[in-house]
Amino acid sequence: MAHKGGMKSPNFLASRRTFIRTMSAMPWLAIFVVEDTIGKVQAAVGKSPKGNIYTRIGVRPLINARGTWTYLSGSLELPEVRETKAQAAMHFVDMFELQRAVGKRLAELSGAESGMVTSGAAGAMAAATAACIAGTDPAKVWQLPDTTGLKQRHDSR
Question: Which residues of 30-67 are buried (b: 16+ CB within 10 A; e: fewer)?
Fold first, then answer.
């Protein structure tokens, strides 16, 4: 087929098929490029994906661009936190005594009445709910999760 002026028109059907075939391969190509780039970045900062505890069990590490969210592993630890945890792991202590001392220290740092370390947002909500149900009565605290005879709802009157 010829256009005005005698030039042949390109085979648009073949070009369109080639374009669609090429574009359908792009997501796979992007995956390879991104994985290669991540590997290069990790190597540049001294992190080997082969030695990662998560990749060894089949869990993919991700780049967190969202912030501190529990379902994204919470947060990364600062080196001084890791060092402190390593020191703490070398000793046995009474957990109730530790909880009181940490609550007091957190209060000093924050200006709050007291403080409590939890496993994350869900742990904090579970502890707060238990406190609302049991109050300060040690017998009721130890009764949980059995709620027989405990407050079932809050009366704000």
Answer: eeeeeeeeeeeeeeeeeeeeeeeeeeeeeeeeeeeeee
